[in-house]
Amino acid sequence: MGSSVLRSLLAVGRLIWNLPRNVLIGLLKGYRFLISPLYGQVCRYFPSCSGYALEAVTVHGAVRGSYLAVRRLLRCHPWSAGGIDHVPAHRHIEKNFAGRSVDQTPRIVMLNHPERYLDHPHDGNGSLSRAA
Q: What is the pTM of this model?
């Protein structure tokens, strides 16, 4: 009985710890679904600023991911040269999921790093699928 209580407490702790991250991920996905299509392809960088922010929060968490996203937004302006600007690797995750299977890799990481996942099957829309 003691181990089930401990597991429950750990699950509640993880839920509370990940809540800010999950709220930010939900807001970013909502923005990418509802608002971003209205603007079209205007970002000077790859991945787009919203894709960068979503990957940063997914990989680094709410605080560091938000910091990286704001720093990126400040660099994205009409006088910027643009180019490829990937989210820095997390210090505990070697090369952002490079050694993990496709099922363990967040979809946004696969979409933002096509060079790493080109040999994986694609679905019909040109986006990466999770089927192996």
A: 0.74
Q: Which residues of 78-111 are buried (b: 16+ CB within 10 A; e: fewer)?
A: eeeeeeebebeebeeeeebbeeeebeebeebbbe
Q: How far apart are CA 96 and CA 104, in angstroms?
A: 11
More confident residue, 111 or 101: 111
- Calculate mean pLDDT across residues 107-127: 65
Structure tokens at 108: 């946004």
Distant-in-sequence, close-in-space partners of 102: CB < 8 Å, separation ≥ 6 = 110, 117, 120, 130, 132
Q: Which residue has 């996942």 as its token pair?
A: 117
Number of helices followed by number of strands (H, E) in the chain: 6, 2
